[in-house]
Design brief:
With 337 residues, this protein is mainly alpha-helical. The protein has 16 helices and 2 strands. Helix 1 packs across helix 16 and helix 3 runs antiparallel to helix 16.
Length: 337
């Protein structure tokens, strides 16, 4: 992927480390808010929430809020609570997703629903959503509230859209992109955009950061869906083939199905409907995806959206924050290689 900005050390692979270093001080303050606001007199709530929140996640979404604020030269403190709100929204959706998907592994650890059960996971997810809205209200900006609450609604719509598309092979690329645009990219976009609101920047800059986050989110999810067929639990934090066994027609499957012969299509239909989910079936799926170059083309699309994210930063002044945000895009795409 070509970039409008070139890293000083182009010999090393892209990394999130420049963004981590950029926002380290701010992120410590965000983590303090998170730890404080996930507390409750009901011991199960911080115990279950802490299992996921402290479970090794990169804090990608709150880091985007902090990096965007740094890009804009914002020197206040409002973005700390709002970044925590973003992380609570994300964590709540993960808790709910794992219940819906029946997942056993998240970030390499057993999922909360496997340990504490589905009812507790759903209810603690609801608690974290409530905490996120408390933080938004405390901020006092109706515009921020509108952006983050709107993103929360879009995420829920995306999850329902994905649920109704489960076990169906005929959803097509357009609907797939609608789903990931809602369930993943909407929060990336909102996390970036709210920084421009608190920094009181023009709407054009709001929209540029929204476009950066949205395109990064789509690229990020495309890569996630590709590596489900080319990686392992140690790399991904979930079992290879989870999407396959859960009957999710992600883009690699959609492309392989479209390019397959009649016999291949019969296999894919049976697999996505849940009738071909053994280990040998997954291996056959991987071979079909490789022979049709479905992963290669999924990653090509990820690079396309990644370049759109980089291009969205074009109007901002060069500097450490901009370079770190560009490299975050390059890292998101390079995870598959």
């Amino acid at each position: 992927m070509s970039a409008t900005i070139h890293r000083l050390d182009s010999q090393r692979p892209p990394s999130l480390e420049p963004m981590v270093q950029l926002v380290a001080g701010d992120l410590n303050l965000v983590n303090a808010v998170i730890l404080s606001r996930m507390q409750s007199e009901i011991p199960l709530i911080p115990e279950l929430a802490g299992h996921l929140i402290a479970g090794g996640g990169k804090r990608m979404r709150p880091m985007l809020t902090l990096a965007s604020a740094r890009l804009l030269g914002y020197t206040g403190a409002r973005h700390h609570r709002l970044a925590a709100a973003v992380e609570f929204i994300h964590t709540a959706t993960l808790l709910h997703d794992d219940v819906v998907d029946g997942s056993d592994l998240r970030r390499g650890k057993r999922t909360a629903n496997l340990i504490w059960g589905n009812p507790a996971s759903v209810l603690v997810g609801d608690f974290l959503f409530s905490r996120s809205f408390e933080l938004m209200v405390e901020d006092g900006s109706l515009k921020v509230l509108k952006i983050l609450s709107g993103a929360s609604a879009i995420i829920a719509e995306g999850e329902v859209n994905q649920l109704t598309a489960a076990r169906r092979i005929d959803i097509g690329e357009e609907r797939y992109l609608d789903i990931i645009g809602a369930k993943t990219a909407a929060l990336f976009a909102a996390a970036c955009r709210i920084a421009a609101v608190v920094a009181e920047r023009p709407e054009a800059e709001e929209l540029a950061l929204d476009a950066y986050g949205r395109n990064l989110g789509i690229a990020f999810q495309l890569v996630d869906d590709a590596i489900d067929y080319v990686s392992d639990a140690g790399t991904m934090g979930k079992d290879a083939g989870d999407d396959f066994r859960e009957g999710k027609a992600t883009l690699p499957v959609i492309l392989a199905y479209a390019r397959g012969n009649p016999e291949d299509r019969v296999f894919w239909k049976a697999a996505i409907e849940g009738h071909r989910s053994r280990d040998e079936d997954f291996q056959h799926a991987v071979s079909l995806i490789r022979s049709t170059r479905a992963v290669d083309d999924t990653l090509a699309r990820a690079r396309h959206y990644g370049q759109r994210a980089i291009d969205a930063l074009g109007s901002f002044a060069p500097g450490q924050a901009k370079e770190a945000m560009v490299e975050a895009v390059e890292f998101a795409v390079a995870r598959a290689y």
